[in-house]
Amino acid sequence: MTPAARVETAIGLIDRILGGTPAEQALTQWARASRYAGSGDRAAVRDHVYDALRSLRSFAAMGGAGGAPGGRQVMLGALRASGIDPDAIFTGAAHAPAALSGEERAFVPPVDLPPDMPDWLLPDLCASLGAALPDVLSRQRQRAPVFLRVNLARTTPVAAIAALAEAGVVAEPEPLADTALRISLGASKLRMAAPYLDGRVELQDAASQAAVAMLPLARGLRVLDYCAGGGGKVLAMAGRQAGMELFAHDAAPERMRDLPDRARRAGARVRQLSGAELARAGSFDLVLADVPCSGSGTWRRTPDAKWRLTREGLDSLCVLQSQILTKAAPLVRPGGVLAYMTCSLLRAENGDQVDAFLGRGDWSEMTRRQFLPADGGDGFFCAVLTRDS
């Protein structure tokens, strides 16, 4: 594919995504239907799409969109933001975008660009982040780093770095977490690298790893990952501390379908519990609730999600989070620990939820932390609470 054809493809995909199709679904369907596109083409188109979604409003403004943006205006703005002459791409040739109109060519981008965030959400972010808001908005326009978690049950960070290098993957320690490595070169080779295939390393954000490091893990504990999903947190706990009895539960069990294979690869034993089994399982020393949330801390990775989120959707998530805390709390034995986590930057989903829960009594706070992109990883929140004896 020519550079112009890649831009034309991105324009069509952005239009589909703005019409409601999730970005990954749109890209996957295009790739399956476009066998002519090589790996380099697929990567370039993906980069165009995700870069555009991260900077959707500012690129649209630079492209001259006066109302609801379209893929053409967004990609036109993206080229201008990159210093590329749009006339070199918008040529009207075969598989290229239609040539620029006189109005498009004469348009002068505004000096003051809109923030790349929904207007309704900005007051919430400002109240949650304060002086950190400009930096967060800037960083969320950039691509997220690729992080690995070293499975300490299988290897050490130093040994993992050396083994990855043999496979052409260059990684270095990430200070945010003692198990975290940041890939600087060769990320595309990771899934064929021996340390990944045999469970010595796993993909996981550095802030998520740092949050797990906050948990008071010890041999002999009975631990439940209450909203387990793919099992990243329970496997991170297994890698940090041997000799614990590990359980995983999720309200949507299909989310855990990959957990058995991941656990085998990591050398961990994790028992999955259905709702009925959980009701008979008794109490736990530690319950982790990594609850469904806006995902606002991860919008560098899933930028289309920020344009789909609504006030009603956020309010519904906050209700669900409170309900999960209410359901998870009785599963903790007296004197035990409840850890509440989100990948959110919003106070309504984080500190406000914990403060409201603590206001019910019978619980005390051990520690809490809001991770920001400036810390090295995604936006993430963790509060560790203990049940009064």
Brief sketch in words of this structure:
It is built from 17 helices and 11 strands.
Describe the model.
With 389 residues, this protein is an alpha/beta fold. The chain has three domains: 3-114, no CATH class; 146-203, Sun protein, domain 3 (Alpha-Beta Plaits); 215-387, 3-Layer(aba) Sandwich (Rossmann fold), CATH 3.40.50. It is built from 17 helices and eleven strands. The strands form two sheets. Strands 7-6-5-8-9-11-10 form a seven-stranded mixed beta sheet, sandwiched between helices. It has a four-stranded antiparallel beta sheet with strand order 2-3-1-4. The longest helix is centred in the last third of the chain and has 18 residues, at 311-328.
Write down the CATH class of the largest domain: Alpha Beta
**Poorly predicted parts:** none
In CATH, the topology of the largest domain is named Rossmann fold
Structural class: alpha/beta
Major sheet size, sense and barrel closure: 7 strands, mixed
Alpha carbon gap, first and last residue: 66 Å
Helix content estimate: 40-55%
Task: Supply the CATH architecture of the largest domain.
Answer: 3-Layer(aba) Sandwich
Q: Helix count, per DSSP?
A: 17
How many β strands by DSSP?
Answer: 11
Strand content: 15-25%
Order of helices and strands: HHHHHHHHEHEEHEHEHEHEHEHHEHEE
Instruction: Supply Rg.
Output: 23 Å
Note the overall shape: globular
Placed side by side, the strands forming the largest sheet appear as 7-6-5-8-9-11-10
CATH superfamily of the largest domain: Vaccinia Virus protein VP39
* Mean pLDDT rating: 96
The number of distinct structural domains comes to 3
